[in-house]
Specification:
There is one protein chain. This protein has 2 domains: 187 residues, Vaccinia Virus protein VP39 (Rossmann fold); 57 residues, N-terminal domain of TfIIb, CATH 2.20.25. Helix 2 crosses helix 3. It contains 7 helices and 11 strands. The strands form 2 sheets. Strands 3-2-1-4-5-11-10 form a 7-stranded mixed β-sheet, with helices on both faces. The chain has a 4-stranded antiparallel β-sheet with strand order 6-7-8-9, with helices on one face. The model has no long low-confidence stretch (mean pLDDT 93). Helices cover 29% and strands 34% of the residues. It is an alpha/beta fold.
Length: 254
């Protein structure tokens, strides 16, 4: 999904998102890595909030996203912070780079935009190719319970002086799919400009994601619910499910 005008208001609307929890979870999992982690690729980096935070933690970061609009904002932020982050515009299911990383992360709904299982498999295979032996892939998805019980057929909205929106989540015909129909009103001087976007998301069962992880050649290290450092999950109780995977050090381990 390539964000359009939404990119311009994304950070303001996401001001309450707990980015620091993603960073903390990532650091804790990387301490368990088989190799020293220095170079990290952030797939679906968006406006760079997680990428920038990991850069501040001392990692060499590359932010990858399909949206030119999102990357433009991310690049502006990195210039302001004088960071050396590399920003690349690429589809995470079709990466065209020979670079190698010690870890790959993919957070905050990105994998849920992969609505076909073949796209999920392509993402896994691409992440595998990016990693050095012993490198880790860490990603999260919405739980099936969250999609079914919290998102499907719900309506959300917010009003501020500068931005207002109404958000319809329509349940799809395929299990655990939703269409997000978003209408924004953004203040431009004394007037409000309207624009609309539609986003499609899907999640799969933990079992399905685990199968894709293993078919790509990864070893599954652990599965977690809602940023917890403890292993274990409940697809009905947890909103997010985190997967920690490792590319084997030796081919014989795959």
């Amino acid at each position: 999904m390539s964000y359009g005008r939404f990119a311009q208001v994304y950070d303001e609307l996401m001001s309450d998102v707990p980015y620091d929890q993603w960073v903390s979870f990532t650091k804790n999992r990387l301490r368990e890595s088989s190799i020293a982690v220095k170079n990290i690729a952030d797939l679906g980096a968006g406006t760079g909030e997680i990428t920038l935070r990991l850069d501040e933690e001392g990692f060499n970061m590359t932010g990858i996203d399909v949206s030119e609009e999102m990357l433009t904002i991310a690049h502006q932020k990195s210039l302001q912070s004088q960071s050396t982050i590399q920003w690349l515009q690429m589809d995470i299911t079709n990466l065209n780079t020979s670079a190698t990383y010690d870890a790959v992360v993919c957070f905050c709904d990105v994998v849920n935009y992969l609505t076909d299982i073949h796209q999920v498999e392509a993402f896994m295979n691409n992440a595998y190719q990016l990693l050095a032996p012993g490198g880790k892939l860490i990603f999260d998805v919405h739980s099936t319970g969250y999609v079914q019980d919290f998102l499907a057929n719900q309506t959300f909205g917010a009003v501020t002086d500068d931005i207002s929106y109404i958000w319809f989540c329509e349940e799809g015909l395929t299990p655990y799919t939703v269409s997000h129909d978003l209408t924004f009103f953004v203040r431009e001087g004394n007037k409000y400009e309207r624009f609309d976007e539609v986003h499609h998301q899907r999640t799969f069962s933990v079992e399905t994601y685990v199968e894709s992880v293993q078919e790509a050649g990864f070893q599954l290290c652990s599965v977690h619910g809602d940023f917890s450092d403890e292993e274990g999950f409940d697809e009905k109780e947890h909103d997010r499910i985190f997967f920690v995977c490792e590319k084997p050090l030796n081919k014989e381990e795959a």
